[in-house]
Amino acid sequence: MYKILNKGFFIPIILIIFIIPLFSSLIRPGFFPMQDDLQAFRVHQMVKCLKDFQIPCRWIPDMGYQYGYPQFNFYPPSVFYIGGLLNLLGVEVIDTVKILFILGFVFSALTMFIFLKALVGIWPAFVGAILYSFVPYKAAQVYVRGSLNEFWAFVFFPLIFWSSFQLLKLGKPRYILWLSISIGLLLITHNIMSFIFLPLFFVWVFTLTVVLKRWKEFFMVIFGSLLGLGLAAFFTLPVIFEGKFVHLETLTGGYFDFRQHFVSLRQLFFSNHFGYGSSYLGPNDDLALSVGYVHWVLGLLAVILALITFKKNKLISSIVLVMAFAELAILFLMHQKSSFVWERVPSLVWLQFPWRFLSDSAFVLSLLGALAVYLSYKLNKNFGLILGTGVMLSLVLLHISFFQPKSWLDISDADKFSGSLWEKQLTISIFDYLPIYAKLPPNKKAPPLPDILEGEAEFFNYKKGSNYQEGGVEVKKQATLRLPLFDFPGMRVAVDGEKVIHKNNDCRNQEYCLGLITFNIEEGRHKIEAKLLDTPIRRISNIITFVSILIVAGLIFRIKNEKYAS
Predict the structure, then answer these.
(1) 0.85 exceeded by pTM
(2) Which residue windows are transmembrane per the record (predicted)?
(3) What is the pLDDT, as a whole number, of residue 250?
(4) Nearest alpha-carbon partner for 329 in 356, 310, 294, 357
(5) Which of the listed residues 384, 402, 420 is the one where a domain comes to its end?
């Protein structure tokens, strides 16, 4: 196998073939149950945004019991843009979701291989990519939790490390490009994963800078990182500054209180349990929360080999030792002994589950595992080959059974988006990101037409778009209308094209106030429209992203010119 792997053009094919069993159960008609059963719904709603050219998509029409929701103003949208485009090309929504999970497996394996190949060569890189693919937590992400965004974050971790390593080593502008795009994509794929991964990234960069003495290139990394932040600004800035306009209390309270979800040492190191349940207070979670036997043993071996060979392999040994300390910190933050840290760092509360650090852990331990294979190969070629082969066989024997759904549903899009399944999706997680003007979520579906609170009126050609509602109205007597649409900053109401003042606190005939758009209208035949427009912060964030895209385009132009000149 080693000789075959040395022929580089075979590697992507061999790697993909090796990991096919991880997702082969998805290659069939139908769908599978998952805890976050909104992935298909989000793709479905993104398609409506794309058809209306609502880009960036911020508001979707059907969530919140069809009163509309600022879903993608706060929930990372990147993978759903891909899903929406696939659906527009003719792929069923549920098949699109399965394809996205499959692509997550394939791309994360390939990006890990690319990174490790640049660092330590083909054989350790291949083993490291397999380690990165056969992580128990990855199986739980896909087949239990259905956490599509969090799963896709695995694609960008290696790309960020690879591009920064190449930038520090070679100082070429093309790697600024790769770094900025990778960071930007991570931020709009899963902001929480970005929050806990980027500190690890800066530890990595600082270590390389010190060991390689690349201080000039260090500032290029800083520039690339800032450019990545700029690319994602259209999403991250509204998340930060407009969170006060939605209900967020359900994201951190009750079941989502981090205090209930610490992981015991037994679960982390000495359990190979895989379940389709959830995590709860105590050590009896029915969920795979192990770092993996093979992964932590290899990590320990990497440290031993790094200490033995430090003088001969200063760079790799330094990386091993620093990453090992980082891994210890990551493991500590998952254990209850770290609760004092969680209590003193308020932003950690948004992580919800301390075991989410398993994503960082999986990446670091897979890196350490690859470095263990590399250092063992340096000591003795045969030992390195045998170790790598044994690692891959062990991973298959221990974890292959995890990568399959608990059950399978013989359904199509027609089933998923109709009847009781459709009704359920309209209300799942209905309190999350509910506009603040609503005291509680609605308990029944939004009506097709506005309510007439006062006066007399008849509606015609009333339409609900992705981020707007519009139609004609014949007002026979001065009226007060209440639209079946949540109010939210940026909502503009117009009558015959002219903006009118609206309010959101006229709650007549409601059990509790829903914060719906309400306004007065004079007698006559009118066209009414309510549409979500940009607030100042959204406008600024869009401009920052646009300027960042121009800088990226400039870098691409410069790189092409350099290639042509050479």
Answers:
(1) yes
(2) 9-27, 72-90, 151-169, 175-206, 218-241, 287-308, 315-335, 355-376, 383-403, 540-559
(3) 86
(4) 357
(5) 402
Answer yes or no: are the C-beta atoms of 294 and 394 closer than 8 Å.
yes
pLDDT single digits (tens) 298-322:
999 999 999 999 988 899 999 999 9
522: number of CA atoms within 13 Å, CB side? Answer: 5
Given 366, 381, 402, which residue is the final one in a domain? 402
Residue 535 DSSP SS3: coil
133 and 392 in contact (C-beta within 8 Å)? no
Q: Are residues 457 and 388 in the same domain?
A: no
Residue 554 lies in a domain: no
Residues 52 and 193 in one domain: yes
Residue 445 lies in a domain: no
- Got the DSSP string for 16-45? HHHHHHHHGGGSSSSB---SSTTHHHHHHH
Buried b (16+ CB within 10 A) or exposed e, 251-267: beeeebebebbbbbeeb
CA distance 186 to 289: 23
124-154 pLDDT per residue, tens: 999 999 999 999 999 999 999 999 999 999 9
Q: Give Rg (Cα) of the chain.
A: 26
Cα–Cα distance measured from residue 122 to residue 127, given in angstroms and rounded to the nearest whole number: 9
The pLDDT assigned to 276 comes to 93
Note the Cα 529 to chain centre separation in Å.
Answer: 33
Across 543-557, average pLDDT: 96
pLDDT attached to residue 319: 97
Residues 486 and 397 both lie in one domain: no
Q: Which residues contact 356 (CB under 8 A, 6 or more apart)?
A: 150, 192, 193, 196
Are 179 and 107 contained in the same domain? yes
Provide the CATH number for the domain around residue 519. 2.60.420
Residue 296: which pLDDT band, with cuts at 50, 70 and 90? very high
Residue 248, phi-psi category: left (phi > 0), alpha (psi -120 to 50), beta (remainder): alpha
Distance (Å, whole) CA 525 – CA 458: 10
Q: Indicate if 166 and 33 belong to the same structural domain.
A: yes
Residue span of the structural domain in which 393 resides: 2-402
Q: Which residues contact 296 (CB under 8 A, 6 or more apart)?
A: 269, 365
The total of structural domains in the chain comes to 2
Are 396 and 455 within one domain? no
The encoded tokens of residue 209 equal 């800078």
Residue 546 lies in a domain: no
Helix/strand/coil (H/E/C) assignment for every residue in 81-114: HHHHHHHHCCCCHHHHHHHHHHHHHHHHHHHHHH
> Does 439 fall in a domain?
no
Burial 514-529 (b: 16+ CB within 10 A, else e): bbbbbbbbeeeebebb
Do 58 and 171 lie in a common domain? yes
What pLDDT score does 1 carry? 45
* pLDDT tens string 498-535: 999 999 999 998 989 999 999 999 999 999 999 999 99
What proportion of the chain, given as a percentage, has pLDDT over 70? Answer: 98
Summarize pLDDT for 459-494 with one digit per residue, the tens.
999 999 999 999 999 999 999 999 999 999 999 999
